[in-house]
Backbone:
C-alpha cells in the first residue's frame, strides 16, 4: 500500500465553464473525488425584485450553451404562475427550437469536447490513434471541422425561428414571437435534412433510423461490425480499446422531466428510473443541501430555497454548487437518463447496472438519431397562419415551476411572485445534480461517485481516465452554480 | 506569416460568446483564424491541454516566455467577496481570475473584452451584482473596471470592447483579423471602445420593420409584425450594432425573430430601469428618441406619419403574418 496522494485537476477544459476536480489517489486508483464548481455569479439574487417578465431576458444568459433550455424553463414557470396554456402551434415551434439546441449541444460535446481526448499522445500506441488524430485532434481534426460546419448550418433554424442563438426572447409563456410562414417551413426542413445528411454520412455512416432501432448492447456491437466508417464506429472501437464501459459507474438512479412538451405530450417520457423500473416522478422530496457548499442557509425545496454565498468559503465546503437530492438520494440526469426513463431498449440495456462513460456517449447519439426524424416531422406539421402565441395577463401573485430537459439533463426553475415582483427564483440545473458536492450525510454527488476506482497511470497529473469520466457527463459548469 | 498568438480566458459569464463564435461561417472559425495566422495558444472549449498543461501555457504567457498578441477575456471579472476575486478562483491554480487577468493583461500586446460582460460587467453585474462583477476597463458606463482607467496594453491601446450579448461571431473574428494585420487603431474604436466597423451602425439599419417604423405602425403585442419601438421596448434606433445588415445564424436578428432590440452592445443594458419588453411613456409619448433625431421634429414627423399610415401597414402591424399584401402596380406607367 502506498500513501494516498492528492491531485488537483484544473483548469479542466472542454467542459462548458470552469471546473476543478480534486482526487485522492491510492494504489493507482482514485479513492475519492471532490468536484468544485469554482464560479459564483448569483443569478437567483440578480432576479430577486425584478418584474417576472424580465426572467425571460436574464435567465437565458445563465448559460451560453443551454440558453434555449433556460428560456424554455423560465417561460414555463411564468406560464404556470399566470395559469396560461401556450398556443399549440407555439409549443411545437418552441419544441423545435429547443430540440435544435440540444442537437447542436450533443454534437459540440461529441466532436469538440469528448473525442479529442482519444487523439492525445497517451494513446499513441493504439491501433485507432492515427485515425483519431486525423479526425479529432483538438482544434484542427477533419471531424472537428465537419462538426463545426454542420452545427453552424443547423443553427440556421435559430436564425429563422428564434432570431439568433444563443440568447433569444422568442420563447414566451404563451408561445413564440415568430410565426413561421410556408417558406420558413421548407427552409427549416432543408436545413434539418442537410444536418441528417451530415450525420448519416460522417457520424453514423448509415441511416439514423437503423441506429435508433438497436435493441441492446449486442445489437450495438453487431451494428459496429456490420458497417464501415463513421465517427461513431471510431468511438466505439476506441471505447472498447480503453475500457470506457468499465469507467464512471453512476448511481443507477435516473431522472427526466420529460422532453419536449407538445400538444401530444412529451416526446421523451417524464419519470424516475430506480431499481430497474420507471416510476412516476414527484419533486415534493427535492431538497437542495448546503453542508459542503459555500452557501449559507438551510436545506430546502427550491420554492423555499435561498442563495446566500458564504464569503468566508469556510470548510468543510468545497464548491459553490448546492447539493440537490431527491428523497435524500442522488440521481443522474442527461441524455442517457432521458432515454432510460423513456424506456428505449438500448439505453436500458447499457445502463442496466448504472451508467458508464461509454453508455453516456452512446445515449447522446441515440437521442440524436431519435430526435432528428421527429424534428423533421414537427417542421413538416408547422401550420402557417395558425396562432403561435396566446396572450396572458401579467402575474401579480403566484408561483410556478418550469421543468425542461436541457441537453445535459433536467433543468428546473421555481418562481414565486409577490406584488408583481419576483419574490424568489431558484434554479436547479442538470450539472447541479450530476456535479453536486457531498451532502450533509457525506454522500458524494454522481460524478464524485463515478470517479472512484478510475485508474491513474504513473506520472499522470490529470488522469486520462478521469477526463473521460468527467467529460462523459457533458457538464455545464456555468449552469451548475449560476 | 508570423503567428498571431491569442489566449482566451472565460470568467464570470455564460460562455455564450464562444458558443456564438463557433457559429462563424464562410469560412468557418478554424479556417478564418488560420488564414490570418491566428493561433489559439489556449481556448477553454477548443484546446487539447487540460490541468497543469493548460496552467503552464498561462504561466508561460504571464512570464513573457511566449509572446501574447491578444488576450481575449470572455465574461465579467468577479471582484467579490470583499475584493478578493475568490468568487472565481481559476481551477487548479488557486489564484482568482482577477489576478490572472491583471498579470496577463500586463504582458499582452492587446486586450480584448469579448462580450458585454467582459467589456462592462453585463448581465453578471445586473440587479444586486452579487459577485461584484465588473468589466475589464469599465464598470457599467463608468471607466475604470478591473484594469483601471489608465491601463494601456503594450500596443498603447486600451481594452478593445467587442461588446454584445452575445457577440456576433464575425465581430470577434474580424477584430482579431484586423489586429493581426495591423488594421485597427484607437481611432477605429467608438466612445465605448467598440470596433467602429460594427458599432458605427444602428440595429435599426436594415430592420425589416422599417416601413412600419416610417409610418408609426406599431406592434401591440410580441409576435405582431409592426414596429416595436412604441410599445414593446425596442431600442434598435439607438442601439449600436450591424445586426440587421449582418444577419445572425444565417438570416436572423432579434427584430427578425419577433422580439425587441435590448441594446445589448451598450453598458448597463442589463438594467434598463423598465421591463425589457415594454416602452415607458410620458404623456403617451414613448421615452427614448431615435439617435440624432431632434425631439420636436420627431414628434411632428411621428404625428404626421401616423396620420398617413397606409391601411396595409396598420393591419399588418398587429398581425403575426401578412394579412394585407402590398398592391401590385405597373411601375412603368407614369
Residues:
Amino acid at each position: 500500500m502506498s500513501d494516498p496522494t492528492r491531485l488537483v485537476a484544473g483548469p479542466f477544459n472542454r467542459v462548458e465553464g470552469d471546473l476543478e476536480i480534486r482526487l485522492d489517489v491510492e494504489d493507482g486508483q482514485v479513492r475519492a473525488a471532490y468536484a468544485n464548481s469554482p464560479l459564483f455569479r448569483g443569478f437567483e439574487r440578480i432576479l430577486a425584485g425584478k418584474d417576472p417578465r424580465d426572467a425571460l431576458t436574464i435567465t437565458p444568459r445563465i448559460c451560453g450553451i443551454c440558453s434555449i433550455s433556460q428560456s424554455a424553463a423560465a417561460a414555463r414557470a411564468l406560464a404556470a404562475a399566470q395559469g396560461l396554456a401556450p398556443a399549440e402551434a407555439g409549443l411545437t415551434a418552441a419544441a423545435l427550437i429547443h430540440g435544435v439546441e440540444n442537437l447542436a449541444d450533443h454534437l459540440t460535446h461529441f466532436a469538440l469536447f469528448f473525442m479529442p481526448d482519444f487523439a492525445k499522445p497517451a494513446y499513441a500506441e493504439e491501433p485507432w490513434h492515427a485515425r483519431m488524430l486525423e479526425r479529432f485532434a483538438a482544434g484542427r481534426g477533419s471531424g472537428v471541422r465537419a462538426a463545426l460546419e454542420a452545427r453552424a448550418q443547423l443553427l440556421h433554424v435559430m436564425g429563422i425561428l428564434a432570431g439568433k442563438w444563443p440568447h433569444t426572447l422568442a420563447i414566451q409563456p404563451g408561445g413564440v414571437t415568430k410565426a413561421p410562414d410556408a417558406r420558413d417551413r421548407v427552409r427549416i426542413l432543408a436545413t434539418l435534412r442537410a444536418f441528417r445528411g451530415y450525420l448519416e454520412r460522417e457520424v453514423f455512416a448509415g441511416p439514423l433510423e437503423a441506429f435508433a432501432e438497436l435493441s441492446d448492447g449486442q445489437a450495438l456491437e453487431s451494428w459496429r461490425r456490420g458497417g464501415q466508417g463513421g465517427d461513431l464506429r471510431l468511438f466505439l472501437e476506441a471505447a472498447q480499446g480503453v475500457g470506457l464501459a468499465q469507467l464512471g459507474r453512476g448511481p443507477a438512479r435516473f431522472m427526466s422531466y420529460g422532453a419536449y412538451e407538445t400538444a401530444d405530450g412529451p416526446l421523451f417520457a417524464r419519470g424516475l428510473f430506480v431499481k430497474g423500473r420507471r416510476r412516476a416522478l414527484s419533486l415534493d422530496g427535492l431538497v437542495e443541501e448546503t453542508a459542503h457548499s459555500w452557501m449559507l442557509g438551510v436545506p430546502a425545496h427550491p420554492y423555499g430555497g435561498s442563495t446566500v454565498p458564504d464569503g468566508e468559503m469556510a470548510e468543510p465546503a468545497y464548491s459553490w454548487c448546492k447539493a440537490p437530492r431527491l428523497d435524500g438520494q442522488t440521481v443522474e440526469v442527461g441524455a442517457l437518463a432521458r432515454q432510460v426513463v423513456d424506456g428505449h431498449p438500448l439505453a436500458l440495456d447499457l445502463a442496466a447496472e448504472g451508467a458508464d462513460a461509454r453508455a453516456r456517449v452512446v445515449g447522446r447519439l441515440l437521442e440524436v438519431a431519435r430526435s432528428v426524424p421527429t424534428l423533421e416531422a414537427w417542421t413538416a406539421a408547422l401550420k402557417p397562419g395558425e396562432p403561435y402565441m396566446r396572450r396572458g395577463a401579467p402575474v401579480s401573485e403566484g408561483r410556478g415551476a418550469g421543468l425542461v430537459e436541457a441537453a445535459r439533463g433536467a433543468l428546473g426553475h421555481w418562481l414565486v411572485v409577490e406584488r408583481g415582483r419576483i419574490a424568489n427564483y431558484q434554479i436547479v440545473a442538470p450539472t447541479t445534480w450530476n456535479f453536486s458536492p457531498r451532502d450533509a450525510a457525506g454522500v458524494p454527488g454522481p460524478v464524485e461517485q463515478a470517479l472512484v476506482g478510475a485508474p491513474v497511470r504513473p506520472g499522470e497529473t490529470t488522469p486520462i481516465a478521469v477526463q473521460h469520466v468527467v467529460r462523459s457527463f457533458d457538464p455545464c459548469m456555468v449552469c451548475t452554480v449560476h | 506569416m508570423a503567428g498571431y498568438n491569442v489566449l482566451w480566458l472565460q470568467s464570470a459569464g455564460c460562455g455564450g460568446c464562444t458558443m456564438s463564435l463557433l457559429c462563424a461561417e464562410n469560412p468557418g472559425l478554424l479556417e478564418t483564424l488560420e488564414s490570418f495566422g491566428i493561433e489559439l495558444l489556449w481556448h477553454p472549449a477548443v484546446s487539447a491541454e487540460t490541468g497543469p498543461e493548460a496552467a503552464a501555457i498561462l504561466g508561460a504567457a504571464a512570464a513573457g516566455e511566449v509572446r501574447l498578441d491578444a488576450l481575449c477575456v470572455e465574461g465579467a471579472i468577479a471582484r467579490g467577496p470583499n475584493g478578493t476575486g475568490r468568487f472565481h478562483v481559476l481551477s487548479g491554480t488557486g489564484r482568482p481570475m482577477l489576478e490572472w487577468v491583471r498579470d496577463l493583461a500586463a504582458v499582452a500586446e492587446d486586450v480584448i473584452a469579448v462580450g458585454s460582460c467582459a467589456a462592462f460587467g453585463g448581465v453578471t453585474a445586473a440587479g444586486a451584482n452579487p459577485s461584484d462583477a465588473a468589466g475589464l476597463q469599465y464598470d457599467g458606463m463608468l471607466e475604470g473596471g478591473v484594469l483601471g482607467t489608465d491601463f494601456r496594453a503594450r500596443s498603447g491601446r486600451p481594452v478593445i470592447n467587442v461588446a454584445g450579448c452575445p457577440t456576433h461571431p464575425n465581430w470577434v473574428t474580424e477584430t482579431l483579423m484586423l489586429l493581426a494585420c495591423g488594421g485597427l487603431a484607437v481611432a477605429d474604436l467608438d466612445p465605448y471602445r467598440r470596433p467602429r466597423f460594427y458599432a458605427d451602425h444602428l440595429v435599426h439599419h436594415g430592420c425589416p420593420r422599417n416601413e412600419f417604423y416610417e409610418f408609426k405602425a406599431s406592434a401591440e403585442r410580441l409576435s405582431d409584425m409592426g414596429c416595436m419601438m412604441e410599445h414593446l421596448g425596442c431600442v434598435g434606433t439607438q442601439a449600436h450594432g450591424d445586426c440587421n445588415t449582418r444577419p445572425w445564424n444565417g438570416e436572423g436578428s432579434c427584430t427578425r425573430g419577433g422580439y425587441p432590440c435590448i441594446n445589448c452592445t451598450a453598458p448597463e443594458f442589463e438594467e434598463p430601469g423598465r421591463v425589457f419588453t415594454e416602452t415607458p411613456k410620458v404623456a403617451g409619448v414613448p421615452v427614448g428618441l431615435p439617435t440624432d433625431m431632434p425631439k420636436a421634429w420627431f414628434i411632428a414627423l411621428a404625428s404626421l406619419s401616423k396620420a398617413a399610415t397606409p391601411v396595409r401597414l396598420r393591419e399588418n402591424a398587429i398581425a403575426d403574418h401578412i394579412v394585407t399584401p402590398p398592391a401590385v402596380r405597373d411601375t412603368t406607367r407614369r
